[in-house]
Backbone:
């Protein structure tokens, strides 16, 4: 198994992370937002010298380094002569300092990198490859690897069709934890791309998409259960599709990342499912969903699910059965109560 | 640390109040809202108070349950020894989302900004729950 682990972006966290280097095939991290941003929030914005230091350290530990340049929106700047020169210059620097692979979401950037640079080109999960046709398109552009849209993580017919249509490497993002078929997906990633991309950056006080996502799940935690995460125990079901898995979460503490690395490396986790999900991290203090209580659910239900929730009701029943809520959190009287105790709007 | 009911206020008191406020809202709304952070603040202008960042609370809840929520807000302020001149919810403008509830003892510079406002939402991101007009 090849495991890609997130790195927050500075050397100290990398050193801590790579204490478990034998379990990690590659780390991935963002670079400086001054050139090309990323589709997610970042804790660090390492300059080229800092990236070089981290690449050198990771390589000494036998771990590859992947740079993430996966803005879902670059505002058209990439198509201007100045944008083209800047992007080209930046990618060249990343390749020169030894980055092993570069992730992009924009087809234009993918084609440029595949044509002009000697680096492994990866199509981001934010290119939303959810069909064999899209996978073929990106393979023809020159991508070496595709991170499949996590929305189809439980659509085995689609995963098999993608596998049968391309020869490039396929990767699955295991713990994103976003809403299934999230209606905020494009708008949210476009917002992040600008907020964590080159100037001018929007001065946003509140992230509507995130707050709304939390609100929806607080009202109805079934939306957590239906999120297309892949549990560590379920990796074995994907071995016919790929053995390359990516753990999301570069805005978390290294301790959190290592907990995920160990869980996915061991293909087992005995704890709260919420501990493993990158998003929505705030809700791990609200819900307790025993990860082991979902043993067998993928094989019994989700692998063959038609996704007509209104007619099915399986996840609704499962949510009532397994979801617990923290009460009196943060005090000596903290307890867990069944979520069923609450009258909820569904 | 400041004083709370004659005792030294501790973070344990804040934790207790966070939990109790959350529990009261949950009982009222019958769903597990999450109080993600409870802060006491002091601003350079002279304002001070409490902020409760809440997820899962909506503008409609304030509208429908205002009469029931107001006593809970008052209890919270008293528990932390804050005498707010204004209590308001901060909204994500144009949406149903309540980002936070704020109890604020206004300074002389900030008071006019609130006093001149009209209605429940003097600004698109504010929903007034209580305001003591000075005589």
Residues:
């Amino acid at each position: 198994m090849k495991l890609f682990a997130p790195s927050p972006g500075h050397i100290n966290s990398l050193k801590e992370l790579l204490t478990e280097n034998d379990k990690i095939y590659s780390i991935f991290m963002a670079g400086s937002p001054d050139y090309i941003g990323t589709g997610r929030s970042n804790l660090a914005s390492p300059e080229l010298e800092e990236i070089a230091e981290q690449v050198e350290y990771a390589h000494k530990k036998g771990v590859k380094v992947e740079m993430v340049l996966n803005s879902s929106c670059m505002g058209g700047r990439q198509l201007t002569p100045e944008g083209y020169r800047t992007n080209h210059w930046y990618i060249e620097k990343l390749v020169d300092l030894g980055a092993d692979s570069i992730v992009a979401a924009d087809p234009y950037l993918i084609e440029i990198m595949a044509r002009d640079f000697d680096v492994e080109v990866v199509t981001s999960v934010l290119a939303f490859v959810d069909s064999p046709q899209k996978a073929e398109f990106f393979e023809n552009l020159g991508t070496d690897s595709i991170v499949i849209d996590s929305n189809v993580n439980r659509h085995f017919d689609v995963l098999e069709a993608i596998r049968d249509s391309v020869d490039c490497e396929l990767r699955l993002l295991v713990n994103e934890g976003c809403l299934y078929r999230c209606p905020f997906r494009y708008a949210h990633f476009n917002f992040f791309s600008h907020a964590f991309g080159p100037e001018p950056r929007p001065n946003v006080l509140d992230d509507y998409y995130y707050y709304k996502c939390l609100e929806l799940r607080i009202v109805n935690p079934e939306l957590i259960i239906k999120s297309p995460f892949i549990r560590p125990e379920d990796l074995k079901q994907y071995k016919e599709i790929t053995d390359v898995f990516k753990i999301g979460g570069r805005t978390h503490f290294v301790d959190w990342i290592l907990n995920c690395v160990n869980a996915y490396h061991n293909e087992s986790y005995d704890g709260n499912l919420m501990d493993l999900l990158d998003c929505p991290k705030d809700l791990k203090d609200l819900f307790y969903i025993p990860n082991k209580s979902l043993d067998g659910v993928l094989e019994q239900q989700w692998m063959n699910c038609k996704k007509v929730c209104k007619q099915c009701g399986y996840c609704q029943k499962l949510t009532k059965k397994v979801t617990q809520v923290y009460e009196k959190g943060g005090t000596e009287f903290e307890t867990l109560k069944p979520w069923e105790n609450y009258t909820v709007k569904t | 640390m400041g004083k709370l009911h004659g005792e030294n206020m501790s973070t344990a008191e804040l934790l207790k109040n966070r939990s109790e406020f959350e529990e009261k809202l949950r009982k009222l709304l019958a769903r597990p809202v999450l109080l993600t952070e409870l802060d006491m603040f002091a601003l350079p202008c002279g304002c001070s108070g409490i902020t409760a960042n809440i997820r899962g609370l909506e503008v409609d809840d304030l509208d429908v349950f205002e009469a029931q929520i107001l006593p809970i807000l008052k209890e919270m302020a008293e528990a932390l020894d804050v005498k707010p001149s204004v209590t308001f919810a901060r909204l994500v403008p144009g949406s149903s989302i309540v980002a936070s509830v704020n109890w604020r003892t206004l300074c002389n510079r900030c008071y006019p900004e609130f006093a001149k406002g009209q209605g429940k939402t003097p600004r698109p991101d504010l929903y007034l729950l209580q305001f003591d007009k000075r005589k």
